[in-house]
């Protein structure tokens, strides 16, 4: 597309591009472009091509910053690619659709997801997986179906995509397999968080760990993901939620999300962290979540849980980092350690459930971030709360 001879006719932001072979509507809009690793983003005009088959062009209403944007912004080598339009946690409105798109139409409110959900492959049809095999997760610089970009700058240089979303742009093109239609009444500045962080954390407790009512949960790292895990565990009816962090100030914030106990991992004295947790819990937690992204903490987290407990790894260490367990350790332990991509959620099925939870006003703190517990409208027992969540799952 870069080599096509262009003539621009500007109608507000809409421009028509003429060439000998093609006449297509393109959009010229502002985007924050990451030109080089670690350098400030540059706000500039870019050209967003029309959506091809199975693709949708959306106007971004709201986008937030996820830590993965920062991680990939700093990466000099692949999968770091530049110039690139980062951003993947967002909500938008459908502006135009390509051929073979019947799931959404102009004006629909949609949440993009970096996880594809084609609905047709064996994995999408299975309740056990959220990893679409037709469009498996990759940190690709391109669109998913056809490895090309829909972005160019005004000099005709290709701009790379990020996580199939690239939401740091007024307009972006997203494959329909990566879009979830949602209730248009949901506040966009809250709902965009369901595009990645909040869904990942809540889903890890709800879907991946399947936290049981009245269980004990330990969470390593009380950042955005850790707080969302706490909220998910609270909704599932966990009776004790222990937050572990090096910053004691996070306990106060954590309380709003259901954290009941706090361990300052930098002040355990002569005892190891796992000894402290085991003493607090009478032998270990039922579930542990590693939300920091350090391989060493995965080992410690596994030591936290009871003999039959489950450790869920949500943090990502540096590329190439290994986890190692002795054969003896594995054989003699009934523990489970598992990863959790997007909290194990199936985007098209589960994001609308989380939106409904929010719209029902029964659980808003994980999106609002500043509200106290709103348990009045919740079923009063942990089992009932868990059941309420499950019923919503089945209610579709
Ligand atoms: Zn993210
Ligand atoms: Zn699929």
Describe this structure in words.
By secondary structure, the protein is of the alpha/beta class. The chain is built from twelve helices and 17 strands. The chain has two domains: 169 residues, Alpha-Beta Complex (Quinone Oxidoreductase, Chain A, domain 1); 146 residues, Rossmann fold, CATH 3.40.50.720. 44% of the residues are buried. Helices cover 25% and strands 24% of the residues. Bound molecules: zinc ion (ZN) (2 copies). One zinc ion binds next to α2. The site of one zinc ion has 8 residues, from α2.
Topology record:
Blueprint: E1 8-11, E2 14-18, E3 23-33, E4 42-48, E5 55-64, H1 67-74, E6 89-97, E7 109-112, H2 122-125, E8 151-153, E9 158-159, E10 171-175, E11 179-181, H3 188-191, H4 197-208, E12 216-220, H5 224-235, E13 240-245, H6 250-255, E14 261-264, H7 273-281, E15 285-290, H8 295-304, E16 305-313, H9 327-331, E17 336-339, H10 347-359, H11 365-368, H12 382-394
Parallel strand pairs: 12-13, 12-15, 13-14, 15-16, 16-17
Antiparallel strand pairs: 1-2, 2-3, 3-4, 4-8, 5-6, 5-10, 6-7, 7-11, 8-9
Helix pairs in contact: 4-5, 7-8
Main sheet summary:
6 strands, antiparallel
> For the record, what is the CATH homologous superfamily label of the largest domain?
Medium-chain alcohol dehydrogenases, catalytic domain
CATH topology of the largest domain: Quinone Oxidoreductase, Chain A, domain 1
Question: Total number of β-strand segments?
Answer: 17
| Overall residue-averaged pLDDT value | 84
CATH architecture of the largest domain: Alpha-Beta Complex
Distance between the termini: 43 Å
Taken in chain order, the helices and strands follow as: EEEEEHEEHEEEEHHEHEHEHEHEHEHHH
Radius of gyration over alpha carbons?
22 Å
Our count of domains comes out at: 2
Helix content: 25-40%
């Amino acid at each position: 597309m870069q080599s096509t001879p262009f003539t621009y006719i500007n109608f507000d932001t809409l421009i028509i591009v003429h060439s000998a072979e093609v006449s297509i509507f393109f959009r010229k809009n502002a985007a924050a472009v990451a030109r080089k690793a670690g350098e400030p983003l540059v706000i500039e005009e870019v050209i967003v091509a029309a959506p091809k088959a199975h693709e949708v062009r959306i106007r971004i209403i709201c986008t937030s910053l996820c830590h993965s944007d920062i991680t990939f912004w700093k990466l000099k080598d692949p999968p770091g690619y530049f110039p690139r339009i980062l951003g993947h946690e967002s909500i938008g409105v459908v502006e135009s659709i390509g051929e073979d798109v019947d799931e959404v139409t102009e004006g629909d409110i949609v949440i993009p997801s970096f996880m594809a959900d084609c609905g047709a492959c064996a994995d999408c049809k299975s309740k056990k997986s959220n990893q679409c095999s037709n469009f498996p997760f990759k940190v690709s610089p391109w669109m998913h179906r056809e490895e090309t970009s829909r972005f160019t700058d005004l000099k005709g240089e290709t701009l790379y995509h990020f996580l199939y979303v690239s939401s740091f742009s007024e307009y972006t093109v997203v494959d329909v397999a990566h879009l979830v239609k949602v209730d248009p009444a949901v506040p966009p500045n809250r709902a965009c968080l369901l595009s990645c962080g909040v869904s990942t954390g809540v889903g890890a407790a709800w879907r991946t760990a399947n936290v049981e009512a009245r269980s004990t949960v330990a969470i390593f790292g009380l950042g955005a993901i850790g707080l969302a895990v706490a909220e998910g565990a609270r909704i599932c009816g966990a009776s004790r939620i222990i937050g572990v962090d090096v910053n004691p100030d996070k306990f106060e914030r954590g309380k709003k999300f259901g954290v009941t106990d706090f361990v300052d991992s930098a002040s355990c004295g002569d005892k190891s962290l796992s000894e402290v947790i085991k003493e607090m819990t009478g032998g270990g937690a039922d579930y542990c979540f590693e939300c920091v992204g350090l391989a060493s903490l995965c080992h410690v987290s596994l030591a936290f849980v009871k003999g039959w407990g489950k450790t869920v790894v949500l943090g990502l260490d540096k590329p190439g980092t290994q986890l190692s367990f002795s054969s003896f350790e594995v054989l003699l332990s009934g523990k489970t350690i598992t990863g959790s991509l997007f909290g194990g959620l199936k985007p098209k099925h589960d994001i609308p459930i989380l939106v409904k939870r929010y719209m029902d006003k029964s659980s808003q703190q994980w999106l609002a971030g500043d509200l106290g517990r709103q348990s009045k409208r919740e079923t009063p027992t942990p089992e009932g709360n868990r059941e309420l969540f499950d019923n919503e799952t089945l209610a579709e």
